[in-house]
Amino acid sequence: MHPPLAIESVDVRAVLVPLKRTPVLKSMSPPAWTIILIDLHMQGGVVGRSYLQPYLPNSVRYIAPLIHDLVERFKGKPANPVDLFRQARQSLWPIGLEGVTLAAIAGLDMAIWDALSKAAQLPLARYLGGSVGPVKAYNSNGLWLIDPSEVARETEELIAQGDFTALKIRLGRDSLAQDLAAIAAARRAGGASLQLMADFSQAHTRDEAIARCRALDGEGLYWMEEPIACDNLSGLAQLRRRLSTPIQVGENFWGPRDLQIALELDATDFVMPDLMRIGGVTGGCAPPASRQPRGCQCPPTCTPSFRLT
Which domain holds residue 26? Predict the structure, then answer.
């Protein structure tokens, strides 16, 4: 058994990662991806590592100092992630418990869990009581809101990257005809067995989404992700009741409370937490107080080094 770990210091640095395919969304099209790398040094030499993906390059100047402040606060204290998660939130509540605050806490939390599992010489999944094995995966590194004429070529490229049988396709173009053309092109290139997960990136109002999603309801999509604003959970619940295609939401949940509200409203069929926003490993593992709807599944997003399911 490794002796209890205690926090010593932290190194935080940011990198801009060039992208092979520039994301094309209505809200943004970043040519590079902002990543914050965190090395958390423990007394005794163990180093826990994590990273955050805050999208906006300028956000680094707010998140990084807060991580340093948290480490200075907890320096020398036992690396108990559940206790430190609670204490960090209590210490920062005057400036809010979401956004920059929760991102910084999540980055520190993931690094602590990484250090603990390294000290135990176990993969994090096994350290948490789970198992290690193959999981289903889809390729989401393309099929943005590009011209439908380009979809077939890109579909073939994405499938070839790893013999994928499922891809994410972005929808929410200016017209229904364009979305239908993009879906048809992907099907022609990938075959009838190709699974398509549709992501609207919050492109529509509720009334627009009702019309668009009902028109696409017979297209055999695996799910429809965030057709409307991610925080309009009552609207998502209304939309879900009108569709046979499952609804996906959760990438933009800030903390376990958002997840609890979504489950209480039966607003979704799938929940996709992002560890930066949900609160790291501790926030992602926090059980909602409400009963999980029957059949609601949890395919996590981003942070592939920290998959929990």
Answer: 7-127
